[in-house]
Amino acid sequence: MSIAVIGTGYVGLVSGTCFTEMGFDVTCIDKDQTKISRLKKAQIPIYEPGLKELVKKNMRAGRLSFTDNLKTGVKDAKTIFIAVGTPTSENDGSADLSYVFAAAREIAAHIENDSVVVIKSTVPLGTSRKVKGIIAKANPRLKFHVVSNPEFLREGRAVKDFLQPDRVIIGVDSEKSLAAMQRIYQPMISENIPVIFTDLETSELTKYAANAFLAAKIAFINEMADLCDKSGANIDDVSHGMGLDPRIGKDYLKTGPGFGGSCFPKDTLALRKIAFDLGAESEIVESVIAANDKRKIAMAKKIIKANGEVKGKTIAALGLTFKADTDDVRASAALTIIPELVKNGAKVRVYDPHGMNNARKVLSGAIEWCDDVTQALKGADSAVIITEWREFAEMDLAKVKSLLKKPLLVDLRNLFHPGDMKKAGFNYISLGREAVLQGAETRNRKPEARKKA
Fold it and tell me: Structurally, how many domains does the chain consist of?
């Protein structure tokens, strides 16, 4: 069975490659000729653990190919996945569907009767039916089917998430589209992975609802961390105690500088716009967006306060991506924090294991781009950890202390244990754990925290 995937961005490239790993022949299509030329040489445009190896493997096996010619790309495919970007509109926060609609118009002239067009892109309610109308208008004689099949990929774990998902959500509009998707996802159905078939609108909303809820968990635990700092409670134990409740769960209860990336910021904004257009209240989503925006500014203020002032000082900023194991800097807290520090007169040295190239495109000002941690730290007045890269969690603390002018470390990811940092001679500022620094040693100290320190 042959599959075509339109779009070789994060979702399209991961999805197309993983479909080949499931045994399908896949052609990935993109208008960007430079990107396609590089992909044909197995040069991957994104950093995603395990992806490059799978691309090479399936190209060698003849299952995975790339083209910039849509006509030839969809020629032998009966199932066509649209996986193009849906960026946030600058006007009202809605999802920009121009790329999705353009792809629909283009494929209308080239797909065969009974083809199944699958919307893999994250799109608002009603988009799948709009795509159906666009194709029908462009080619009235064509008999085809439309499916909504949203992705639930976590950057840094996308390959595993695709091949071993928690669930697969599929919205269908006909028996033929149902049968086609059952064939594609049969390997997962056979492994008793929940594959849920529903209608188009429910599938579309499920994606937004899931991401907005996870964003709400992050915003909530960040508020609790602030409360811990005010009250003397320990956020690590609060998170642990909450997470043991099966109704809540432990995931997404780790405090940090605010969520970012390609999904949560964009999808919460889009969901707010969807609710507004439908005349529905979205107070919770509204508060999550506002809380996250304030969080990033608050983190910059926390760094400034820890330094007394930052004017004329050099600060080593460790981490630029919105989280570890990705090169994605979209909506990263670093993109708010670093400009705030610069605006207040600081010179900022930055280092990230994989995010430097993308960050250079969006950051400017009094910034020094460093080749490694040592270069960033040497002679700096203080350091701040913005992204939870393992490289930072495993730093030699004695070396870090010797490189800094003053042993001041602001840790926005709580990578180290306050007690250990105090013993190492650091002025250590973390999130929601002031009580631990003041002698209230946690009673449920985690072994992994001890190991990282």
Answer: 2
